[in-house]
Design goal:
The complex is a heterodimer of chains A (about 270) and B (about 220). With about 270 residues, chain A is of the alpha/beta class. Helix content of chain A is about 35%, strand content about 25%. In chain A, the strands form two sheets. A six-stranded mixed β-sheet of chain A has the order 6-7-8-3-9-10, sandwiched between helices. In chain B, helix 1 runs antiparallel to helix 2, helix 2 packs antiparallel against helix 3 and helix 3 runs antiparallel to helix 6. Chain B has one domain: Methane Monooxygenase Hydroxylase, Chain G, domain 1 (Up-down Bundle), CATH 1.20.58. Classes of the chains: A alpha/beta (about 270), B mainly alpha (about 220). At the A-B interface, helix 8 and helix 10 of A face helix 3 of B.
Chain lengths: ~270, ~220
């Protein structure tokens, strides 16, 4: 599929590589669900301590690509991946999968707390990773809940069920759970799609704070959200990465006509 | 989506109405100076209120689109360019009024010298205004660039006029009032050219997504 240029002249400083260090790098990545090819030749960089957003219509491959970044797609039967994804220069397909998922955490569209207490939800990953010291465990849970901007709301009910929290709080709890094992990259798959504007604003503030310590990749259907939170944005269409650039360029002066049509709502 | 596209068309239509009123005001103010046409000057004074009203209408309309439609890419650039062009056009309307006021002051005075340079500058300015607005309507980046290239010619003519009028004042203090009026007219014409340049720069932002303000090398 060929792309048509919009004729935009993009300022050189708007190029994605300016001052940014590569954290994840996809090289000619193809992904198949059985006979259906969901990703076609994706090559791109995810920059360290930056927020990268993927946008595109349903079925464009953005979530598939996100889930490939921590090998989540391998749980799908008859799936097949070709190409490389480098995490700090190492091919993730040659690393131990549990290590990849510890380093590259994920939060899903629907909050999915375990049927346990708030404390135990956050402590779960830490216990699996062998945290024997109870005091250290407590500190770490508090630290994670603070990083997820949830501590003040739950500090007096840590041992109550996570199901008693609101949808927005449950989503931040899932972020706290993911943060507990100190991932280097956090993948967020439409984390706000079921949340109201106030809960959404809290998650967006949280993303802004977290990028000091973590690389964040977010898939969103909400273009305004991508525009608000992301430093870089990639536009996917029919399994291809059509355009990847700084968020400002994508939403102000996109170079490809398909991107222009999508962000202005003239798609299709 | 279709509704938004229609609203963008409405914004352009309002801006075109503003443009034609301002273009007419400039043309009538120049006639008032060169042909000593009193009714032309009065027409300029009369139309100023309408220009001011449309400026507010366009601003409000564009701000509502920004607030309610969250425009992106080309739509965003169109609305931002429209807001800026609107401000330039309103200032151009004010400058036409200033020129018409000076024309009224010159109406009864004996002519100290035949007008050669002012019609020349006025012709250049009218052409720049027309081209910058045509460039907006046709989204023509080349036409916009040609406006930027004309600005220097207006500046040099205005400087030449300035020196000539100063020498008239030095020769005979009786000339001072008239020469000051003519100086104000040339200064206002030059400002009109500057506003046309601004519009041409906004057209380049709209069409090409580039900002050429204060960067002479990027203008070509």
């Amino acid at each position: 599929m060929g792309s048509i240029d919009t004729g935009m002249q993009v300022a050189p400083e708007a190029k994605p590589s300016a001052g940014a260090v590569s954290k994840l790098c996809a090289k000619d990545l193809n992904f198949h669900y059985g006979s259906f090819q969901a990703l076609r030749g994706i090559s791109m960089e995810v920059y360290d301590k930056r927020v990268t957003a993927f946008i595109g219509p349903s079925g464009c491959g953005k979530s598939t690509f996100l889930r490939t970044l921590n090998r989540m797609n391998e749980t799908v039967r008859h799936s097949r991946v070709e190409g490389e994804i480098l995490l700090d220069g190492e091919n993730i397909f040659k690393l131990e999968v549990s290590q990849v998922r510890r380093r590259v955490g994920m939060v899903f569209q629907r909050s999915n707390p375990f049927p346990k207490s708030i404390f135990d939800n956050v402590a779960y990953g830490l216990r699996i990773n062998g945290y024997p010291n109870r005091a250290a465990l407590r500190d770490s849970v508090e630290q994670s809940l603070r990083r997820a901007a949830l501590w003040e709301e739950v500090k007096d009910k840590l041992h109550q069920s996570a199901y008693g929290l609101s949808g927005g709080q449950q989503q931040r709890l899932c972020i706290a759970r993911a943060l507990a094992v100190n991932p280097e990259v956090l993948l967020l798959d439409e984390p706000c799609s079921a949340l109201d504007p106030i809960a959404t604003a809290k998650i967006e503030d949280l993303i802004f704070q977290l990028k000091d310590s973590c690389t964040i990749v977010i898939v969103t259907h909400n273009m305004q959200q991508a525009a608000r939170v992301a430093d870089y944005t990639g536009f996917f269409l029919l399994g291809r990465l059509i355009e990847f650039d700084s968020t400002t360029v994508i939403f102000k002066t996109p170079a490809k006509k398909e991107t222009e049509d999508y962000v202005t709502g003239r798609f299709g | 989506m279709r509704h938004f596209v229609e609203e963008l068309e409405q914004l352009k239509t309002k801006l075109l109405e503003m443009s034609s009123l301002v273009e007419a005001a400039i043309q009538r103010s120049i006639s008032a100076v060169i042909q000593k046409d009193r009714s032309a000057a009065e027409e300029v004074f009369h139309n100023e209120a309408r220009i001011n009203d449309i400026e507010i209408e366009i601003d409000e309309f564009a701000i509502n689109l920004l607030a309610l439609k969250q425009p992106m890419a080309a739509d965003l650039r169109l609305i931002v360019a429209a807001l800026k062009i609107n401000t330039d056009l309103e200032r151009m309307g004010d400058l036409s009024v200033s020129i018409a006021e000076r024309a009224m002051s010159l109406m009864e005075a004996p002519v100290i010298k035949p007008m050669i340079d002012i019609p020349h500058i006025a012709g250049l300015v009218e052409s720049m205004v027309r081209k910058s607005l045509d460039a907006f309507v046709q989204r023509d980046a080349d036409l916009a660039r040609s406006v930027l290239a004309s600005d220097d010619a207006v500046d040099s003519l205005r400087t030449a006029c300035y020196h000539e009028l100063v020498s008239f004042m030095e020769k005979d203090p009786q000339n001072i009032q008239q020469a000051l009026d003519l100086l104000a007219i040339t200064r206002n014409l030059e400002r009109l050219a500057d506003h046309s340049t601004n519009i041409a720069e906004d057209v380049l932002f709209l069409v090409k997504g580039i900002d050429v303000r204060h960067h002479a090398e990027a203008r070509t």
